[in-house]
Amino acid sequence: MLAGCPTWPEEFAERYRQSGCWEGITFGEMLRQRALALGEHIAVVCGEQKVSYAELDRRVDRLVVGFQQLGIKKQDRVIVQLPNIAPFFDAIFALFRIGALPVFALPVHRENEIVYLCEFSEAAAYIIPDKDAGYDYCELAKKVKTSVPGLRHVIVAGEPSTDEFHAMHDLYVDEGEELQVEGLEGPRSSDVAFLQLSGGTTGLPKLIPRTHDDYIYSLRMSVEVCDLNKDSAYLAVLPIAHNFPLSSPGVLGTLYAGGKVVLARRASPDVAFPLIANEGVTITALVPPLAIVWLDAAESRRHELLKLQVLQVGGAKFSSELAKRVKAVMGCKLQQVYGMAEGLVNYTRLNDPHDITINTQGRPMSPYDEVRIVDEDDNEVAYGEVGELLTRGPYTIRGYYKAEKHNEKAFTADGFYRTGDLASMTPEGYLVIEGRSKDQINRGGDKVAAEEVENHLLAHPAVHDAAVVAMPDEFLGERTCAFIIAHDQAVTSNELKAFLRQRGLAAYKIPDRVEFMDEFPQTGVGKVSKKSLREFIANKQNVLTH
């Protein structure tokens, strides 16, 4: 096991093995099994490119050798920041076979986040596209390389802008060469397979260690609940490095089922709807703001959605009024999904009654998921009462990577993860998510840590104090509002936003609104009352809209 990664106590690990939760296979073995069984059946569609299971397996073996020749070895950490393109699968499965660990960054991350990830994970390599959506990732990589001298390699899925970077297409060894892959001493199924990013409430993300055993079990359960098979076609419009489109059932669950993954570079109906029609897409996943856009577009384009059977919505709470529209407008079933990169995944079932599907966020997918809803003293509350959600199980982690002090707060003594989500439970075991107990803003599925943005704002010489809170938004659910107490010198909202961009903060973390105050309201013990600030901005919005 990778140092710094807490794991399951042996009594739990043995229970999960004996019960058949953990199959004892790695991701590299999973792909090999599917390639042998499915051969030329299409695994991935990316634009005009169609890759079969057999071809994907061969491409991965060829890239394994190339990565090894660069010196990438077992337990090396490799930052993977790729959009929805086919080389994503070549890269991660090659790393899986070696036993190196992908660290999944999102396309929206910028210098601030990537430098931190490289330093904290002690990354050996960084895999990027050349450009995507007009953004130059090679320029970003140059800045990162300057800041992180220990980063040995930058690998570009595309054309590098400098000779010091490696073109990924040059790393595949020729088909005719002897591939020394079968004798490769790869990982065990109990080893950490990759590191994911947490939403984080105290600044930059923590890293979540997921093992081959636990994550493949998560895929298997998702495939069963979502009824996927080799005839299924999953359209990925959300960034596939994110846990939801990666595994619930997502692209990896689709490959586990032997189905077809269809990649979309953008999530707009103009891009996605023709793919649904042309590729026979049966299931896709959206966050609520995108679901609203799709519902509006589907009013006049339902003919393109005839093959779509299931629309999943997750990442943030989906209002019941919008949920009611899905079947009527799009002609497919709605499946609500609530989960987290740390583990627990909940689904409404495809045969659930209508009122459960539109009013709850589902129930745990595994019979081995343990869930508690507790009050401030960790006493369980009654059905229907709101409390903090705690969970443990065969695919929920027992601790973050190299975060011993934080783990003491984030996990109970008996191994339950404190999700930070406020929820209630129906007598039937379905969850209704009521909000967050942590200081975090859920901006349309993108999690913004208030403390991180506040720290950056406080670095500006004109800012005396800063408090960042959520404000309600009909489209995204929540947006961010930064309250500022300025020093004597004047500063504008636009100047502060430009300052945050210059510091390399991702675009979704830039406050949507800035309010200036002479002083902040306080709680009875002298702390900034963020509750009062949230009420203030919500009331101000109401006044402006009425």
UniProtKB/TrEMBL annotation:
- GO MF term set: 2,3-dihydroxybenzoate--[aryl-carrier protein] ligase; nucleotidyltransferase activity
Keyword Ligase in the entry? The reply is yes
Q: Which GO terms describe its biological process?
A: siderophore biosynthetic process
What is an example of a Pfam family matching this protein?
Answer: AMP-binding
Keywords, sorted A to Z: Ligase, Nucleotidyltransferase, Transferase
Q: In which pathway does it act?
A: Siderophore biosynthesis
Indicate the secretion signal residues. none
Question: EC no.?
Answer: 2.7.7.58
Outline the extent of the AMP-binding enzyme C-terminal domain. Answer: 452-527
Checking InterPro entries in the record gives: AMP-bd_C, AMP-bd_C_sf, AMP-binding_CS, AMP-dep_synth/lig_dom, ATP-dep_AMP-bd_enzyme, DHB_AMP_lig
Where does the record place the AMP-dependent synthetase/ligase domain? Answer: 33-401
Q: Establish whether keyword 4Fe-4S is in the entry.
A: no
Please name the top-level EC class of this enzyme.
transferase
- CDD domains for this protein: 23DHB-AMP_lg
NCBIfam families xrefs:
DHB_AMP_lig
The record's PANTHER family line, in alphabetical order, gives:
LONG-CHAIN-FATTY-ACID--COA LIGASE, NONRIBOSOMAL PEPTIDE SYNTHASE PES1 (EUROFUNG)-RELATED
Q: To which protein family does this belong? A: Belongs to the ATP-dependent AMP-binding enzyme family.
Recorded protein name is (2,3-dihydroxybenzoyl)adenylate synthase
